[in-house]
Design goal:
five-stranded mixed β-sheet; nine-stranded mixed β-sheet; Immunoglobulin-like; alpha+beta
Length: about 325
């Protein structure tokens, strides 16, 4: 038979003895309650429950005492890390890479290749390359390039048109090194020009298209050239206030940082602006280069950045950049 321990609803105090629930439960007797009234029975099983509950509460409090400060310290570290100053300690040695930027097209023009050297500073200026030897071979013909008056630019000696489905090999000789790359020219489909819209209650317009769009069927690059230097009221303004040069892309892939990229500047232009749009075909390799370049530039600084790395290249070892071959279609209009 279970022993019954009487516990009062109201605890009485005397000069000889102070009684409370805790002492009664510890003694498991009624001796502490000799001066009390209105007893209520409490089984020994309830004492065990009380003891276990008290132990659990004590453990919870101790863990909470540790967990809460740790949580707020962690939260403060995360928030304050956004403002932490970083001093870059880059091990760059003295090596410089040849940077190649060139696209040949099916346009009958003097094709262009640009050469420069890599630089170490985050906001450094490129060092353009002189005295390089450049040729392009299409399997039948060799096209020689000569240095232009613009630093780093090399133009083909004669105008030529790149042919669809032909593969072109670039050969560069510079500083006792030889670099090469290959590119195949693919056709480009005819599509509608990028749309533009008027800003409400103004005579200004803007390109109403995303910087990068998803097109599973075709990768392409669209170059937009705007010029409103001849529009009344803008004739005497500097060139950087009356001209704009932009690029838009259609890629066959979708990236998270593409969707959540930082906002780009909205270019506004007046009625009467001359707009030229040129659409370029992109090979799979060229698309990979564009995508890697966007990750490091236009898509950088958003909520889903990935680890930084060198951009994709089709150049041989020791050179970076890209050599491409593209079909081009053009569209020109006056904004009205």
């Amino acid at each position: 038979m279970k022993r019954i321990i009487p516990v009062p609803k109201r605890i009485a105090k005397t000069q000889k003895q102070t009684c409370n629930l805790k002492s009664a439960l510890k003694s498991r007797s009624a001796s502490c309650l000799q001066n009390s009234h209105n007893f209520q029975p409490l089984f020994s099983a309830d004492y065990n429950t009380y003891k276990a509950t008290k132990s659990a509460i004590s453990t919870f409090r101790s863990r909470l005492f540790i967990a809460v400060p740790v949580f707020f310290i962690s939260l403060f570290s995360v928030l304050s890390s956004c403002e932490k100053r970083t001093n870059w300690n880059l091990d760059l040695a003295n090596e410089q890479f040849l940077i190649v930027d060139g696209i040949i097209t099916n346009e009958f023009i003097n094709q262009k290749i640009n050469l420069s050297l890599s630089f170490k500073e985050l906001n450094g200026e490129p060092e353009y390359v002189s005295n390089a030897g450049i040729t392009i071979f299409d399997g039948d013909n060799t096209f020689n390039f000569i240095e232009d008056t613009i630093p780093g630019n090399y133009l083909s000696e004669n105008k030529f048109t790149a042919v669809i489905n032909k593969t072109y090999t670039l050969n560069i000789q510079y500083n006792n090194n030889i670099y090469f790359a290959e590119a195949k020219l693919l056709p480009v489909s005819i599509t509608q020009a990028l749309p533009y819209k008027q800003v409400s209650d103004t005579s200004l317009y803007y390109i109403a298209a995303p910087d990068v769009a998803f097109n599973p069927d075709e990768a392409s690059m669209i170059e937009v050239i705007l010029n409103w230097s001849d529009v009344a009221g803008y004739e005497n303004l500097p060139a950087n206030e009356t001209k704009a040069h932009m690029f838009y892309y259609n890629l066959t892939t979708i990236d998270v940082n593409q969707i959540f990229h930082p906002d780009n500047e909205l270019i506004l232009f007046p009625s009467g602006t001359s707009m030229t749009q040129k659409k370029y075909s992109l090979s799979k390799e060229h698309e990979a280069f564009i995508r890697s370049l966007l990750i490091e530039t236009q898509w950088n600084g958003g909520n889903f950045d990935i680890e930084e790395a060198n951009s994709y290249t089709n150049l041989s070892k020791g050179a970076l950049g890209f050599f491409g071959a593209s079909s081009v279609i053009s569209y020109t209009a006056i904004i009205q």
